[in-house]
Amino acid sequence: MPDVTLTRVYRFASAHRLHSPHLSAAENARVYGKCNNPNGHGHNYTLEVTVGGPVDPATGFCADLPALDRAVHAGVVEHFDHHDLNTLPEFNGLVPTGEVIVQVIWKRLAAAGLPLRAVRLHETRDNVFEYREER
Ligand SMILES: [Zn+2]
Predict the structure, then answer these.
(1) What is the fold, at CATH topology level, of the domain defined by 3-131?
(2) pLDDT 10s digit of each residue in the chain, 135 long?
(3) Catalytic pick from 27, 82, 130, 133?
(4) In what helix (H) or strand (E) does residue 125 lie, and over which residues does it extend?
(5) What b/e sequence results for 12-42 when a residue is b if at least 16 CB atoms lie within 10 Å of its CB, and e otherwise?
(6) Has 123 been annotated as catalytic?
(7) Is 35 a catalytic residue?
(8) From ligand 1's centre to the CA of 84, what distance in Å?
(9) Domain boundaries of the chain, sorted by first residue
(10) Element (H, E) at 117
């Protein structure tokens, strides 16, 4: 039975500030530009979570959609929505760039036992980050 994937779309709004403790103030300003503003800024993130597996001949489904929704809402949407990502413990010591956020989301969803294939995070209209692991 071939694998089929299901991608589900979620949305949340979060604030962040891009500032690295490994860089000087001048380097932070140069590297991150206006995203280094001490007051932070926000994004309306769109998250695409792809899960997959063989299609169950009894149900015709490749994934448990209600379980996916529960895991993403509890693990990501309710946890991140209307929060400052810099203050959340999973970003402690990390710069919450799109590259980092997408990996944190993967870890949180993988810990929930989802059959993850890919996580894509749309940060702006033009910036999309994707994380996947070889199976
Ligand atoms: Zn930003």
Answers:
(1) Tetrahydropterin Synthase; Chain A (3.30.479)
(2) 679 999 999 999 999 999 999 999 999 999 999 999 999 999 999 999 999 999 999 999 999 999 999 999 999 999 999 999 999 999 999 999 999 999 999 999 999 999 999 999 999 999 999 999 976
(3) 82
(4) none
(5) bebbbbbbeeeeeeeebeeebeeebeeebee
(6) yes
(7) yes
(8) 11
(9) 3-131
(10) strand 116-122
